C-alpha cells in the first residue's frame, strides 16, 4: 500500500512518508529524503491550485520510452522520443509532475551511462516545452518535484524489495536505476543546501 500511494506525487507528504526510517537504512540518505519531502510539501503541495492538470503517463522513465536515433553530431548520437509503452500509472494529475518524472529518470539513466545529466535535463525540458511551455509557477516547483519523485522511487523500490525475493526479475527491474537515483538525489540536495 505504501508503495502505490507514494507514487502519486500529491501523496508525498510528511505524514505519508513516515515509514521512511524503516525503508531507508542509510542515515544520510534518510535525512535527505525527509528534508526533500518537507520542502516539497511546503513549496509545491501548497501551490497545487496554481498548477495545471491534465492526463499524464506518470511513469515516463527510459524503460517506458521508445526512442529512435535521428543523427550523429560530433560523435554524439541524438535521439527523439517516438513512442510510449506501459500506461498502468496514467492518471489526471499536475503536468509539472510529468516533467519532473521524466527529468528524474532520464537524469538517473544519464548518471548510469556517464552522460552529462545537466545536458540531458535541459534537453528533456526543451523537448517538452516544444509542445507545452511550463508556467513560471510550474518552473519554480520543478526542482522540488524532481527530488520528490526520486524520493518516491527510493522508498517504493526499497519497500518493494523488502516484500519480495531480491533475485526475482521484478526486483531487478526495480533496482535498475536505484544506485543512480540515490546518487542524483544526494547531488541535487547538495545543490539546495
UniProtKB/TrEMBL annotation:
Signal sequence interval, chain numbering: none
Principal cellular location given in the protein's record: cytoplasm
Matches recorded under InterPro entries: Kinase-like_dom_sf, Pseudomonas-type_ThrB
- Cellular compartments annotated: Cytoplasm
Gene3D superfamilies in UniProt = 3.90.1200.10
Q: Per the record's keyword annotation, is Cytoplasm included, yes or no? A: yes
Q: Which GO terms describe its molecular function?
A: amino acid kinase activity
The keyword Cytoplasm belongs to this UniProt entry's keyword annotation: yes
One CC-aspect GO term: cytoplasm
Keywords attached to this Swiss-Prot or TrEMBL record, sorted alphabetically, are:
Cytoplasm, Kinase, Transferase
Show the PANTHER family listed in the entry.
AMINOGLYCOSIDE PHOSPHOTRANSFERASE DOMAIN-CONTAINING PROTEIN-RELATED, HYDROXYLYSINE KINASE
Family, per the entry? Belongs to the aminoglycoside phosphotransferase family.
The protein's name in its UniProt record: Hydroxylysine kinase-like
**Which organism encodes this protein?**
Phallusia mammillata
Identify the gene encoding this protein. Answer: Hykk-003
Amino acid at each position: 500500500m505504501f508503495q502505490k500511494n507514494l507514487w502519486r506525487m500529491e501523496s508525498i507528504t510528511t505524514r505519508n512518508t513516515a515509514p521512511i526510517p524503516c525503508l531507508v537504512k542509510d542515515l544520510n540518505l534518510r535525512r535527505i529524503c525527509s528534508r526533500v519531502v518537507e520542502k516539497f510539501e511546503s513549496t509545491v503541495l501548497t501551490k497545487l491550485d496554481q498548477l495545471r492538470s491534465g492526463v499524464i503517463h506518470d511513469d515516463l522513465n527510459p524503460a517506458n520510452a521508445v526512442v529512435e536515433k535521428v543523427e550523429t553530431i560530433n560523435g554524439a548520437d541524438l535521439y527523439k522520443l517516438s513512442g510510449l509503452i506501459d500506461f498502468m500509472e496514467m492518471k489526471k494529475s499536475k503536468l509539472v509532475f510529468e516533467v519532473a518524472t521524466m527529468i528524474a529518470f532520464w537524469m538517473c539513466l544519464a548518471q548510469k551511462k556517464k552522460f552529462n545529466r545537466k545536458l540531458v535535463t535541459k534537453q528533456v525540458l526543451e523537448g517538452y516545452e516544444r509542445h507545452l511551455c511550463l508556467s513560471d509557477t510550474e518552473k519554480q516547483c520543478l526542482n522540488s518535484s524532481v527530488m520528490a519523485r526520486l524520493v518516491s522511487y527510493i522508498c517504493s523500490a526499497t519497500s518493494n524489495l523488502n516484500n519480495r525475493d531480491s533475485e526475482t526479475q521484478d526486483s531487478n527491474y526495480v533496482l535498475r536505476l536505484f544506485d543512480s537515483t540515490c546518487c542524483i538525489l544526494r547531488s541535487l540536495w547538495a545543490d539546495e543546501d
